[in-house]
Amino acid sequence: MNRYVVSILMVVGLAACATTPPPSPEPFEAVQLDSSQFVSRVDTFAVVLDASSSMTERYNGMSKISRGKETISRINQTLPAIDATAAVVAFGSGSCLGNQYARILYGLAPYSPGEMAAGLDALTCAGGVSPMADGVGVGGQGLQRSSGKVALLIVSDAQNIKEEPVITAAQNLKNAMGDRLCIYTIQVGDDPSGSELMKNIADVGGCGFAVNADDIATPDAMADYVTRVFLAPVAEPEVVAAGPMDSDGDGVTDDRDQCPGTPKGARVNAVGCWVMSGDTVLFDFDSAVIKDTTLLDEAAAIMTNEQNLTGEIAGHTDSVGPEAYNQKLSEARANAVRDYFIRKGIAAERLRAVGYGESRPVAGNDTEEGRRQNRRVELHPDR
């Protein structure tokens, strides 16, 4: 090998681990969650961050590694003080991680927002291969020595990842910790195969879920995510007070409840209807493809427990596009959900799929958020 080839290889190697200049931070004012209203769902958590070369690629105006660090930082800013132990681990290769495949940036130590932020800031570059299994393994070492409930969060673009070793590493942790462990994945970027991989990893835990970093970027969305992963509401004593009744106990009083008889445990919208949207977006624009099954699985569990429950699956759309087209789209969405329930073991005769097009919005169609809420499916029990 001549010296010119060597020089070229050195330049390429340096570029792979080049320091990523920090972009101008996007405005983010964390929602201040009232710690007195919650108890911690977890006793220990670890965040595993992808710091391989694919994370140096730019996505939506900034490098993926910057987006990943920003997402973890926003979790850290939003999470109220909880009595837990925590760790942050990065995986990759080369000089960025001290020539290790996985490096502990923080912990395992009593959770401190300031110390966690400092550990995250210590990672200034990304490069090399993507040994996610090593990251999961290193992060899991401390988790296995812990007690109580455990959360493992993985932040990655999920590119150039060998699936089998990662699934094996996650399964080993699950086998060791059982029901104590939940796995949550956050994808940075929009690679479809990466999205499938991240969902498969989360499914190993049996009690976590997968999201995209873009879906939890706003303060409200991040507060909802932090609540779902880390916090549970403080149980309040039942108080009998004068005023409108809430006969089905869904949190919407009878005078406002348009869907009385909602089964216990069902998530409802502002008018008391069992709704399959909200914190998890069920359908993309102009699509009848189910995007996330978290809420559907909750609904299927309720229907499994209540064998006599029958009802209508109501599909809805936003107002973009011709009314006739939206009617067909709403029917397709309702049928997609019905088919999913049937695959989950719910008898077909218990469910009717009906489309309402754009005729029953629950939010204004003049904003993206309003349109997102209107792209939904509701369950209307027959009782």
Task: Describe the secondary structure blueprint for this structure.
Layout: H1 3-16, E1 38-40, E2 44-50, E3 58-59, E4 62-63, H2 64-78, E5 85-91, E6 102-110, H3 113-121, H4 132-144, E7 150-156, H5 163-177, E8 181-187, H6 192-205, E9 210-212, H7 219-230, E10 231-233, E11 274-275, H8 294-305, E12 311-315, H9 323-343, E13 351-355, H10 368-374, E14 377-381
Parallel strand pairs: 2-5, 2-7, 7-8, 8-9, 12-13
Antiparallel strand pairs: 1-10, 3-4, 5-6, 11-14, 12-14
Describe the structure.
With 383 residues, this protein is α/β, with parallel strands linked by helices. The chain has two domains: 30-233, Rossmann fold, CATH 3.40.50; 274-381, 2-Layer Sandwich (60s Ribosomal Protein L30, Chain: A), CATH 3.30.1330. Helix content is 34%, strand content 17%. The strands form four sheets. A six-stranded mixed beta sheet has the order 6-5-2-7-8-9, sandwiched between helices.
